[in-house]
Amino acid sequence: MKKRYLLAPGPTPVPERVLLAMAMPILHHRSPEFEPIFQEVRDGLKWIFQTANEVLLFASSGTGAMEGAVTNLLSRGDEAICVRGGKFGERWAEICKAYGVVAHNIDVTWGEAVDPAAVREALKKHPKTKAVYFQACETSTGVGHPVKEIAATVRENSDALIICDGITGIGVNDLPVDDWGIDVAVAGSQKAFMLPPGLAFASVSARAWKSAETADLPKYYFNWKTEHGAHLKNQSAWTPAVSLMIGLREALRMMKEETLPAMFERHARLAEATRAGAQALGLELFAPKSPATALTAIKGPEGIDTGKITKTLRDQLGVTIAGGQSQLKGKIFRISHFGYVTRFDVLTGLVALEIALQSLGYPVKLGEGVKAAEERLGL
What we know:
Aspartate Aminotransferase, domain 1, 3-stranded antiparallel β-sheet, 13 helices
């Protein structure tokens, strides 16, 4: 028998409470019974995004919300600035290109956070910029970008819209959308929301809605004005993922029971413990100067392809983590510690990592990584 543990940065583990809620008999999405569920979800999303604005909800991966944050706000030929420091920063630029938006890219060394000064310089160089796109957490590199500082820089130097990919940030870090002036923040269900993949979210400010009035890029399913009108009636424009919506209601209830401050503190503590455990094993962090809170990216030991580490963990020990993407394939591995994750999940992951590394010939003193993590966790 093998028990499996999911420590990848999406999908993340789903609580039993949420699984049971999703197992209830299916409801018709146009029935009166579904409307109070939708209302509670709408209120809960505003709470977690820390916004008074409507948070739109789609049956989609997070990329659908990213695409909508281009098509609903801009017109062909408009200029945008995209921070590219990993696979998901590149995605912003790729979406812009697909729709004829001129993307001015700020290329950041993978493993480093963008300097807000680079954003300021880009805005000066491209004064016609209509929107700035960036990540809260670059999941492919384990980097946390300075969201508050980026947003302030954009506001102080232009009238451009501030668009943040918070897919691996909302519910992990304190990202008060309204207080920081973020016009659009997007997220996905399979991250801190503790759900299976399939839902995407986008909070939309008054400034963003004003821009949407003149945006002429093609859109149909991801038409925000159509969806917004339906939301105000506690409906969706199209058929929603009913079971995921019911699960989302339960997940939001769990998050409220924990409270935002406790949730942010838990994630920060788990991240610190994971980093300490990895370093105690003699491993190097890939993003030591600006590590993300949601996950830890770790360089593979000299001479060991990290694909062998992830495969050994998954196939022999039942622990699923993530490897590197694109140019980082075989060079790093990524352990997540957000969502439905506790201190014992982190310790389990480190124990498995020690065993896997030893089996691959890396000199490990068993227990050193776990000990360092326990000290950080106060155990």
